[in-house]
Design a protein that fits this description.
- It is a single chain.
- By secondary structure, the protein is an alpha+beta fold.
- The chain has a single domain, classed as Vaccinia Virus protein VP39 (Rossmann fold), CATH 3.40.50.150.
- 29% of the residues lie in helices and 32% in strands.
- The protein is built from three helices and four strands.
- Strand 3 and strand 4 form a beta hairpin.
- The chain is globular, with a radius of gyration of 14 Å.
């Protein structure tokens, strides 16, 4: 699917999963489109689950300059906020991976 045209109707999904893939959208406009589309397809109270490596100290130690391919935490939080999604949970997994749950408001 294209980031600005997910193949789902409006407001029908409980959860949208983006696992180790969203960082491959290198243009900010494409990431904005993905988050906007995820919000469109989610039912009220639905969740976007984003799992990514972050551009941070831990990943830089392990991946060296390759960590610049990852995006900073603030970038993901900003894209969610722009799409009207609210942080519901954030969890670090094995010290290198972060899982975010962004929720669509119920009203």
């Amino acid at each position: 699917a294209r980031p600005g045209a997910l193949p789902a109707a409006t407001g029908v999904l409980d959860t949208v999963f983006a696992v180790f893939a969203a960082h491959e959208l290198r243009r900010p406009a494409d990431r904005t489109a993905l988050f906007t589309e995820a919000a469109r397809t989610l039912r009220p109270g639905g969740t976007l689950l984003l799992v990514e490596h972050l551009r941070d100290a831990a990943n830089t130690v392990v991946y060296g300059p390759g960590a610049w391919h990852f995006l900073p935490r603030d970038t993901w939080l900003r894209h969610a906020a722009e799409a009207g999604l609210h942080p519901a949970a954030e969890r670090r997994i094995a010290g290198l991976v972060t899982a975010f749950a962004f929720r669509k408001p119920t009203s």
